[in-house]
Amino acid sequence: MSKEQRTQIDAMLRQPRPESPRSVEAIRAGFEALMARMIVPDGIRTTRTALGNRPALHIEPDNGPYAGRHAGTILYFHGGGWVYGSPESALSLTGHLVARTGFGAYSVDYRLAPEHPFPAAIEDTLSAYRALLDSGQDPSAIVFAGDSAGGGLTVTTCLAARDAGLPLPAAIVTFSPGLDATRTGESMDTKEGIDPILTRESVEHTGAMYLAGQDPHQPMLSPAVLADLTGFPPMLIQAGTNEIMLDDSTRLATRARAAGVDVILDITADVPHVFQAFAGILDEADQALDRAALFLTQHGRLRTTSMATGQRA
To answer: For the chain, how many structural domains are there in total?
Structure first.
């Protein structure tokens, strides 16, 4: 059944490509329409709020054993090439993580290019993290998660937090992260045509909007090839073999290992970019989210101190 599911999803994603680059408005509308087809789980509730200097969507368990008690907090960064996407478009991902972990989540509506190019998104995600810390949340119970461009933001926000002298989150989970604005990974070419969603042309089109003339050869734009990951928390990196940005994930994992970071590189065969969004439709998506939820609950639970023993629990 899984092979049939993968074939159907691949066919759905292989829409006719326009002969010329689409406008920002068309890209945004098309992505929102696609993500509106994803399954959002029952048992969650959402509230519009603000975090730092940006709007955010707060997602919480609404029923079952997790309702009313959160062992941790997910700070989520949505995908969309830093140009499109929203907390609403990522709700299938955040919702499934909340439903599986019992954590609450904040999905940040960070500013988008071309109106707000680099480093606006990182400024907003760092501000959101700082707001959680300022509210009294323990960093040992905060985890970063994100997909695609938002997956890249899990890493660059962690870099920015470290540079600012802030305590780092307990863990990072990143789905098909965008981590290399230099576009030098071999998969950019070897997976061209195999990837049913992205092409080199499409990611360079939106990437140029985010760069706005900046040199991509800097850690905050290409952490997979340039960042020092020393001191990073444990990381889970999930990607599929059918995506042009696969080497963004594999090279980040190599850099993390070299820096002494606990890292799990979780590659699923014959699935597309951010395949986890197809939870409830694709078996591999549900299985990957189960693994991500296990990782989050292992690393992101609030540690309490026993008054009697002084030991951490």
So the answer is: 1
| Residue from 107, 148, 222, 249 carrying the catalytic annotation | 148
Is 243 part of the annotated catalytic residue set?
yes
pLDDT, tens only, 175-205: 999 999 999 999 999 999 999 999 999 999 9
pTM of the model: 0.94
What is Dmax (Cα atoms) for the chain? 69
Query: For this structure, is 70 an active site residue?
Result: no
In this predicted model, what pLDDT tens digit does every residue of 49-69 receive, in sequence order?
999 999 999 999 986 555 545
Q: Has residue 310 got a pLDDT over 50?
A: no
Give the residue numbers spanning the domain of 143.
2-11+45-299
Q: Which one is catalytic: 60, 88, 123, 243?
A: 243
Q: Of 70, 78, 273, 299, which is the active-site residue?
A: 273
Contact residues for 248 (Cβ-Cβ < 8 A; gap 6+): 152, 177, 178, 179, 180, 185, 224, 239
Specify whether 148 is catalytic.
yes
Decide if 95 contacts 84 (C-beta within 8 A): no
32 belongs to a structural domain? no
